[in-house]
Amino acid sequence: MLAPHKAGTRNPTPQRTDRRLGKIIQLLVDHATVVVSGTKIAEELGASRSEVWRLVQQLRTLGVEIAGHPATGYRLKAVPDLLLPDLLLPLLRGTIFSQHVHHYFKIGSTNLAAMEAAGTGAPEGSVFLAEQQTAGRGRGGHSWESTQSGIYCSVLLRPALPPSDALILSLAAGLAVEAAVRQIDSRVALDLKWPNDVLIEGKKFCGILTEMNAEATRVRHLVVGIGINVNQTSFPAELRPIATSLRIATGREWSRAELCAALLKSLDREYRDLLTKPGAQESILQRFQERSSSVRGQQVQVEENGGFEGVTEGLDTRGFLRLQTAEGLRVVLSGTVRPK
Ligand code: BTN
């Protein structure tokens, strides 16, 4: 959930995606039934035909299926399910995420990229998306398995909140994931686990890592990083008992682009409501408690401060977990909570 940013950790030279790659795909999608000449693409891009050929070859090595060559023109064999800004932006109009979408085919960590950009003045609403992470960060110093079939998304926010109130944003992100999945397929039964795992049949398919930079009384910036297992068909042996993907759970392939757009739209709604609507914080707490099977009445073990156990008793007004223990009521601020 909320973790201080680890100063000094660096993303090894993340290479932002050349915007022209997305533009080529968009052009081929817009003319899906015809062959588009290299000259037309070159004109649209303001590039030479040989440069177009080089970019097409680059797309092919990234798995995009394009038929043709410079002499015949190009045609998409299948619309690629990539999180490219040119494909996502039309779906994000009117949200705070519609202006600055950064895309990487491969990066260490989108959270780290977002935290670094925040430090150099990137605006609120900046989004960092990757097809793959090589050093995905999880909570509690764990890593996050980040192969090509998932969504790896970090958003930069600058809410006028004290740091002690920031947990509510993590809870809201869990609700946003839940709403996005439900919007696409309302038959999937989801469960929220405090503070912000999203589960299907007891297995995790989404994790959220919120990192922030704050003074004692105010958040300077905050990055909400969301990892969703979408189309993975298997996991390494050690993750198999605890991890799942939407594809494994539903038996069908999901559109990552559709899900990512739905997620950003629903996160935008939650965030705007939180900043502008009276009662939004209470609504987040109430909905989180309604959609979590474990936040009330569950015997749990908490791995924090040497470990302790108790029965969950809902959330307090800032979103922390209340626990009835042998020594009385305790409030869990962080740490891993496991069923006993
Ligand atoms: C968890 O441990 O449950 C949190 C996992 C968060 C993973 C996401 S993937 C996108 C973003 N970038 C990261 O390096 N981590 C978060």
Layout of helices and strands:
Layout: E1 2-4, H1 19-30, H2 38-45, H3 49-61, E2 66-69, E3 73-76, H4 85-88, E4 101-104, H5 110-119, E5 127-130, E6 151-157, H6 167-184, E7 190-193, E8 197-200, E9 203-214, E10 219-228, H7 246-250, H8 256-276, H9 280-290, E11 296-303, E12 308-315, E13 321-325, E14 328-332, E15 336-339
Helix pairs in contact: 2-3, 6-8, 6-9
| DSSP strand count | 15
Distance between the termini: 21 Å
CATH class of the largest domain: Alpha Beta
Low-pLDDT segments, ≥5 res: 1-8
* CATH architecture title of the largest domain: 2-Layer Sandwich
Tally of individual domains: 3
Q: Helix fraction?
A: 25-40%
Largest β sheet strand count, sense and barrel closure:
8 strands, mixed
Q: Which small-molecule species are bound to the chains here?
A: biotin
Kindly provide the radius of gyration, computed on alpha-carbon positions and rounded to a whole number of angstroms. Answer: 21 Å
Provide the CATH superfamily of the largest domain.
Answer: Bira Bifunctional Protein, Domain 2
Secondary structure tally, helices: 9
Protein structure class: alpha+beta
Word description of this protein:
- With 340 residues, the chain is an alpha+beta fold.
- The protein has 3 domains: 2-13 and 84-289, BirA Bifunctional Protein, domain 2, CATH 3.30.930; 19-76, Arc Repressor Mutant, subunit A (Orthogonal Bundle), CATH 1.10.10; 294-339, SH3 type barrels (Roll).
- It has helices spanning 19-30, 38-45, 49-61, 85-88, 110-119, 167-184, 246-250, 256-276, 280-290, and strands at 2-4, 66-69, 73-76, 101-104, 127-130, 151-157, 190-193, 197-200, 203-214, 219-228, 296-303, 308-315, 321-325, 328-332, 336-339.
- The longest helix is centred in the last third of the chain and has 21 residues, at 256-276.
- It is elongated and about 80 Å long.
- The chain starts with a strand and ends with a strand.
- The structure holds biotin.
